[in-house]
Amino acid sequence: MSVTAAQGFEAAGVAVGLKSTGNKDIALVVNRGPLKVGAAVFTSNRAKANPILWSEQAIADGVVEAVVLNSGGANCFTGSFGFQTTHQTAERAGELLGVSSGDVLVCSTGLIGSGDEAFRQKVLDGVTAAVGELSAEGGVAASEAIITTDSRAKRSVVVGEGWTVGGMAKGAGMLAPGLATMLVVITTDAVLDAEAADAALRRATRVSFDRLDSDGCMSTNDQVTLLASGASGIAPDADAFAAALTEVCLDLARQLQGDAEGASHDITIRVHNAESESDAVEVGRSVARNNLFKAAIFGNDPNWGRVLAAIGTTAAAFDPYDVDVWMNGVRVCSEGGPDRPREDVDLTPRATEVVIDLKTGAAEATILTNDLTHDYVHENSAYSS
Amino acid sequence: MSVTAAQGFEAAGVAVGLKSTGNKDIALVVNRGPLKVGAAVFTSNRAKANPILWSEQAIADGVVEAVVLNSGGANCFTGSFGFQTTHQTAERAGELLGVSSGDVLVCSTGLIGSGDEAFRQKVLDGVTAAVGELSAEGGVAASEAIITTDSRAKRSVVVGEGWTVGGMAKGAGMLAPGLATMLVVITTDAVLDAEAADAALRRATRVSFDRLDSDGCMSTNDQVTLLASGASGIAPDADAFAAALTEVCLDLARQLQGDAEGASHDITIRVHNAESESDAVEVGRSVARNNLFKAAIFGNDPNWGRVLAAIGTTAAAFDPYDVDVWMNGVRVCSEGGPDRPREDVDLTPRATEVVIDLKTGAAEATILTNDLTHDYVHENSAYSS
Q1: Which ipTM value was assigned to this complex?
Q2: A119 neighbourhood in chain B, CB within 8 Å
């Protein structure tokens, strides 16, 4: 049920022709309250799309009434015309919903540089149509309207003690830290204030979406938004709420990984016994971004030499000659030398696990990535996106 | 003529069965003097192969009598046995040449983790065979013996006023800064002391091999060595020598780029008007390493949005909304927005030029890279290397 699983929310997804396929391309999520609390995290890319520039301002007061999302155009690097398009989108939604445009967030995804007059008109028409379609069962339609090269919509729900957290996500390429051509809306009927919502969201995204690094490419349009309606009347324990929110974020992140463009392996890189968590993240990311490693996994080749060569490029605390590496449960490298024969490793399953033991401390981190495949090259060379 | 173009050098290339193809796999370059000056730069990867660990020590006194190079095995992560193999290689060459083993550098390239007893015996036999084949015409054979997945040997010669600089290189994958599965030996008959040789080599590699970033992957085995025999009797002006050396390094770097694994485009990224040279390098490298950009170039798609998205991940001084981007002479983006239509850009030639104008200063840098292709994925997934 996605963003309408929690009480107090309505949503809609409609088609207005932004996608050449005729599929749904405008989503609207509305918080009916009684609370109108919002929190959001944005791409850390300095090249930010117009909807990011808008939403960063709109979220500042912690009040969000609605979120408009479109696929079929990123509205990034489209100049002041593009920013006006975003502004008008929020104004149209505000007028029709009877709320301030400054409490309406906007998210866009699609080709950078696209966002002309025709795009603007379709988005505005789409907002009008979506308002007419709003319903407490609209979560599925909304989740379908935000996908681009995704092969399927992503939804997740976790139920707490009298309150619910539900969300939707889209994203298939440009999956990298600081978020990833990724639009996510999560709703809850828990009673939260803006500060608590913001803290819980940052806590959850730090160990979920920020650890998803499919292809090392950081998007201009990423946004993860949390809306709280308070409709359950229950104020949860902060840790319990953060845990549920993290569970939803991790579930959605795994769905994004599992649907990454052209991927044939979902690779979980677990770094153990690092001196610090940041060391563990740096090591995991260096491996996740190594094209030679990623191509080897595509070829079902347990090439641990490429893992060590990647780790060697980091500033993390470790001794290259005292590192152990496991692939799918087989220790292929111990103390920086060959261990079990590569023939013992079965890399044919889609789910692939690489464990790296740095032996310098007690910190750990997990990075999610994908392999580098012919289909990845094909999807990102044959079509503009 | 490669490493034997300059006076005072002999070289050889022999086949001892390290390569399954039966092609040459051991190269030897000997400096007959009168000077025995050497300088070298090494991979900045913290995971260093045994020949790197050896050669870093051997070069410390600035005296080099000979360099032994093998393809067919990286001798990296092969433990103390592997280090002994490197040591014995230098000792064998030293005995046969009547010089100290501490003045013999060793370079290896091939699969990480390979370097067993059979490998050792072949390398030692190869040194003996190569000493027997040494000749002042051996530069071509030596250049052929160091290639791995290269489709052709790389050689370059520049003639100065009475002195000569000549070199050979190998490298086709793992081309990245801090050098790149790349072995290079350059010789000169100019009169240089060790300090001057080291300074000239660092000056030349900083703007040539260090600016070649084919696939973002940094090797464990890279080494660039300069040997000076002084046989010309001429001590060149430092700037003139550095210019000639840089020309040889750039020529070899371009040859490496032109033969990079699976590439269909040689991409030159020129960053202009940066606040500092390091900003220019950081921006160029961020684009060179962006898989989405690289795949777009493979697809002949002038996707400037991916260029800006890559620049946005850097800490360089720039305004994302005041950047111009040219592709093959066509300004596709001005002031962070669309300019000429993408149809105007012809990306079908192999030589591709991307110019980025940051408009924040007067510094510039050029980065050389390649596109991301099906053949790159194939070559790096179907074979262990």
Answers
A1: 0.79
A2: none
